[in-house]
M23 family metallopeptidase (Streptomyces musisoli), 185 residues
Amino acid sequence: MRRTALWTALPLGWAVIALMPLAWAGPPPPAPPAPPPPRAPAIGRAWPVGVRPPVLRGWEPPTTVYGAGHRGVDLGAPAGAPVRAVAAGRVFFAGRVAGRGVVSVALAGTDLRVTYEPVRPSVEKGDRVAAGEVVGAVEPGGAHCGTATCVHWGLLRGQTYLDPLSLLPPWLLNSGPSRLLPVMP
């Protein structure tokens, strides 16, 4: 009873402050950092096109399943350039999707699948391919890379997109021209 009398005696502003002490405690603690995106084992042995093609657009993982992002890597390559399997596997799909040539390879001994587009396939579904083997040629045109010709290289584990560059070992990613240093006596 005494408590009721105290509450009724306080001005309305004080009662609200007394009832909501957490609102004045400051901002909430920061959210824990997001876990790093999943990676694939570095089993690749070759770039899909060229020796060290320019990356025109990198991998940008979406924040949600249907969210915005870039679910692969765009590699600059001239039309007609050979497209090679980055690792050994079996051709999962080779054909046209939405007017573009697509080759998809299930990588041997993994639950991973790589895709290359726009590519004119030179393989068929079910073919086994070795790392570095030609699976098609870059098709001209397409609006994916604007005015540049490119290959969109994707990597999937189930329905989850991963960074395809994670397939390549660091020595292949960072390789540049060889430089010989002078021998010091």
Observations:
- The mean pLDDT is 81.
- The CA atoms of residues 112 and 138 lie 22 Å apart.
